[in-house]
Inverse folding.
């Protein structure tokens, strides 16, 4: 199985997000972190298929719990990518399965 190193675990701020560009991941990905947990999602809002960041690389996070789409203010939970408020409530971000390897890299399988 192919695995792609996205970033070092410490490069993702606790309670925040790091945008991984398409050149690195094969598609634009957002890695989010809360404590020792990490999740990753394709950087595309299900509302209009636009990136969540308006300014490249800058994704808004609120209370270490949700990502906010800069275009429509939709809010997506860190832990499952489900939209809990906004124009696409109930829709989900496309998850990218990730884990932290022994070298403290966040890696995605099959990216």
């Amino acid at each position: 199985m192919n695995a792609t190193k996205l970033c070092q675990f410490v490069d993702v701020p606790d309670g925040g997000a790091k945008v991984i560009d398409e050149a690195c991941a094969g598609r634009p990905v957002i890695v989010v972190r809360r404590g020792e947990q990490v999740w990753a999602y394709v950087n595309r809002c299900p509302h209009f298929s636009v990136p969540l960041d308006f300014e490249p690389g800058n994704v808004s996070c609120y209370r270490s719990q949700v990502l906010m789409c800069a275009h429509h203010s939709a809010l997506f939970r860190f832990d499952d990518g489900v939209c809990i408020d906004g124009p696409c409530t109930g829709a989900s971000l496309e998850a990218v399965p990730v884990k932290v390897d022994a070298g403290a890299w966040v890696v995605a399988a099959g990216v």
